[in-house]
Amino acid sequence: QVQLVESGGGLVQAGDSLRLSCTASGRTFSNYAMGWFRQAPGKEREFVAAIRWSDGSTNYADSLKGRFTISRDLAKNTVYLQMNSLKLEDTAVYYCAADKLGRYGSRTYQYDYWGQGTQVTVSS
């Protein structure tokens, strides 16, 4: 079992930057992948980015590439999501997730563990 806890959300203005963190505890493995998803009210959960733990290979939603960056700290068992140039449409609950097979894919069904989510609200 893996427990995931997100932090770093909050209220920011459009154009600002924010860094989210997700720390994993419990039994973790080097071949896991970690992903970020987000969900706005009334919408489906949407893929943001993912990273393979073993070598740091990344996968991004096309619309977010270049503006969002995913990274990891192996020693801290923590994955980060650096969000720059935030827009109103980035407002959502952001979730981190772990894939025990290390696929770092873009589909929710590929992930086995989920955090509780952290709210990001972008104002004008």
Provide tags for this entry:
mainly beta, 124 residues, 4-stranded antiparallel β-sheet, 11 strands
CA-atom Rg in angstroms:
13 Å
Calculate the terminal CA-CA distance, rounded to whole Å.
40 Å
What fraction strand? Answer: over 45%
Shape: globular
Structural class: mainly beta
Number of helices: 0
- Total DSSP E strands: 11
Give an overview in words:
With 124 residues, the protein is mainly beta. Helices cover 0% and strands 52% of the residues. It contains no helices and eleven strands. Strands 2, 4, 5, 6, 9, 10 and 11 form a seven-stranded mixed sheet that branches. A four-stranded antiparallel sheet has the order 1-3-8-7, with no helix packed on it. It is globular and about 40 Å long.
Brief characterization of the structure:
With 124 residues, the protein is mainly β. The protein is 0% helix and 52% strand. It has strands spanning 2-7, 10-13, 18-26, 33-39, 46-52, 58-60, 68-73, 78-83, 92-99, 113-114, 118-123.
List the helices and strands and how they pair.
Layout: E1 2-7, E2 10-13, E3 18-26, E4 33-39, E5 46-52, E6 58-60, E7 68-73, E8 78-83, E9 92-99, E10 113-114, E11 118-123
Parallel strand pairs: 2-11
Antiparallel strand pairs: 1-3, 3-8, 4-5, 4-9, 5-6, 7-8, 9-10, 9-11
